Amino acid sequence: MKKLLIIKMGYSETLDWMLSLTTSLGDVLRTTFILNYFKDYHIDWLVDGRALPLLEHNKYIKRIFVYNPSVGDELKKEKYDLVINLEKIPEACVLSDSLNAKKRIGFGFNGHDVDMANYLDYLIGDDMLIEICREAKKKRDNQHCFQEILARVLGKEWSGQRYILGYKPKSKISYDIGFNWTTSNKWANKSWPKPYWQKLEALIKGKYSVSWQRGLSDIFSYIDWIHSCRMIVTADSLGLHICLALGKSVIALFGPTSYREIYFYNCGSFILPESDYRCIPCLKPLCKRKKQCMEFIMPETVKERIEYEFKNRIFAK
After folding, report:
1. What span, in angstroms and rounded, lies between the C-alpha atoms of 254 and 204?
2. Beta carbons of 18 and 24 less than 8 angstroms apart
3. Crossing angle of helices 238-246/219-227, nearest 10°?
4. In CATH, which of 3.40.50.1260, 3.40.50.2000, 3.30.70.260, 2.60.40.760 is domain 175-312?
5. Radius of gyration (C-alpha) of the chain in whole angstroms
């Protein structure tokens, strides 16, 4: 059986040049769609410990390695037919280049004498991937979803392959709507203001039962909470990707990030700010404007979309 190592820890988003100490959990989860292409492989996955629950119990992953300073010594004992590195941090690129592998795909240095102070300048990889990461305009103008782009990098055809989440929710459906209202500190400007959530709750009170976000300290509990709601209203966050993995109905609110990168698998829809700001999507985690773009998404608009979805979508009982 052929052996594959996937290096996706979450320290950098695959389509973004920015690195962060905050693990991008959603980017790890959405990368699992590539497992569909390698079901006949022995698959190892190198991941950050904070994202580990998103990969546990996945029947297509044979071994999960949690990243630490000594994990490279263990991986160097292996022989891989293919290594896919989707991380830009220098440690991941150096490790990928050093492994015993017949073929490598993704980011790397490929023998370059790298100046670590400017190591991003030395990264090599698929031209389209590098361009989208480096050039904000190309990323803003991009019309392809994440899966299409990554499938091309792998030399595969994108035909709707889904995320693969190993954990199976234990909760029962108990609420009509879940408010997935918080976002990570990394992208605080993706948040919809809390007073808007409160107004939305007041607008739909008496017609739909509402649950506010739960399980923030434990990913499995978080997944169970999402599963307990017929529909989730959310910003562009991990919760959105969990909804898509579960096939859960979702309404996603977008502002600074691009909705075009998200494929909804017929699970829901998105709402954009009603604004003439030309900077949308700015693709930046901080905003200098007095009124941020997410403040132009009105609670009344979200209420109307909720009513439309409940009228036209069949929900699990």
Report:
1. 21
2. no
3. 60
4. 3.40.50.2000
5. 20
Return d(Cα 184, Cα 237) in angstroms, integer. 8
Give strand pairing partners of 306.
none
What distances in angstroms separate CA 232 from CA 13, 18, 173, 247, 294, one per listed residue?
A: 24, 28, 12, 11, 17
Query: Which of 240-260 are b and which e, b meaning 16 or more Cβ less than 10 Å from the residue's Cβ?
Result: bbbbbbbebbbbbbbbbbbbb
In the three-class reduction of DSSP (H, G, I as helix; E, B as strand; rest coil), residue 286 is classed as coil
Q: What is the DSSP string of 180-208?
A: E----GGGGGGSPPHHHHHHHHHHHTTTS
- Write the pLDDT tens digit of every residue in 100-141: 999 999 888 765 555 554 555 556 667 778 888 878 888 888
Task: Please tell me what DSSP assigns to residue 267.
Answer: S
Determine the distance from the C-alpha atom of residue 249 to the mean position of all C-alpha atoms in its chain, rounded to a whole number: 17
Rounded to the nearest 10°, the torsion over CA 263, 155, 137, 110 is: 130
Q: Any residues with CB less than 8 A from the CB of 162 and at least 6 apart, and which?
A: 33, 36, 244, 245, 265
pLDDT on residue 121: 56
- Higher-pLDDT residue of 294 and 314 is 294
> Are the beta carbons of 79 and 42 closer than 8 angstroms?
no
CATH of 3-154, one of 3.30.1340, 3.40.50, 1.20.120, 1.10.10: 3.40.50
> Helix (H) and strand (E) counts for the chain?
10, 12
Angle, nearest 10°, between helix axes 194-204 and 299-312? 50
**Beta strands at 3-7 and 82-85: parallel, antiparallel or unpaired:** parallel
Domain ranges in the chain?
3-154, 175-312
Q: Return the percentage of the chain with pLDDT > 90, whole number.
A: 74
The rounded distance, in Å, linking the Cα atoms of 142 and 65 is 33
